Structure formats: structure tokens, C-alpha cells
């Protein structure tokens, strides 16, 4: 049963398809600044889009970003904008989707598997599933 407070979960391939099919759909990356810088970001340039980076939890310390809703609202997104949210594996982005929906955003969907995916049998991310493992475009600074 899906959580009734947000649209639900999709995998990274469906996220890429939606981003390409609908010019209004945006991707918000809710990981930390350190993750964006050192691990990388999805690259949407071939779609004529940019990722919207807004931390859900702040680095260092992992404290909840009390300004998250205000930061997203400050990006000029209408409340009916289709929003996809991504993090490392899908947990923080699910929480962010629920919070945005509770704040009045109507179309928030979690990208399950996230940017790096779940842990594989050897305890590593980025090999089993997720944006990078699926071969979707990404860049690293």
C-alpha cells in the first residue's frame, strides 16, 4: 500500500522518462552539498534541464533543514508542478516528498533507488541499482 501523502515511488528509469516527456517536471536532489560535490549529480543537460539541489538534511551532522519548504518554494515552483525527488537511495527523498505534499505541493514523487542505489552483497552502493548503476547521465565536480 502506498503512502497517501505523496504520489508514490518510481524507479530511476521511469524518472528519466518523465523528465524527458514532460517539460514541466523537475528533479529536486535532496542530498547534502558534500554528496553533490564529491559523489556527483544527475546530468539533465541533454533534456534542457537542470537539477534543483535543496538539502533535506544538512551537512555536517545530518540535521533536518528547517528551511527546506521555503527553499523549494523560493525556486519559483508552482504547487502543481510535477516534482521528482531523489537522494542517495530513496529514503530522504521519500520523507521530503511527504513534507512537500503536506505543505501544499500536489504532485511529488519519490525516485526509489536514488542516485547511488541500495547496498549490494559486498556492502557497496552504485553497482546494484540507482541512477549511476542504471547508466543514466551524471556529472561530478
Plain-language structure description:
This protein has five helices and nine strands. The mean pLDDT is 92. It is 27% helix and 18% strand. The protein is globular. The protein has a five-stranded parallel sheet with strand order 1-8-7-2-4. Strands 3-9 form a two-stranded antiparallel ribbon. It has a single domain, classed as Rhodanese-like domain (Oxidized Rhodanese, domain 1), CATH 3.40.250. With 141 residues, it is an alpha/beta fold.
Summarize the model shown.
By secondary structure, the chain is of the alpha/beta class.
CATH superfamily: Rhodanese-like domain
Beta strand %: 15-25%
Shape: globular
Average pLDDT score: 92
Terminal Cα separation, in Å?
A: 39 Å
Largest sheet: 5 strands, parallel
Keywords, please?
141 residues, Oxidized Rhodanese, domain 1, two-stranded antiparallel ribbon, globular, five-stranded parallel β-sheet, alpha/beta
Topology:
Elements: E1 8-10, H1 12-21, E2 26-29, H2 33-38, E3 41-42, E4 52-53, E5 57-58, E6 63-64, H3 68-73, E7 83-86, H4 91-102, E8 108-111, H5 130-133, E9 138-139
Parallel strand pairs: 1-8, 2-4, 2-7, 7-8
Antiparallel strand pairs: 3-9, 5-6
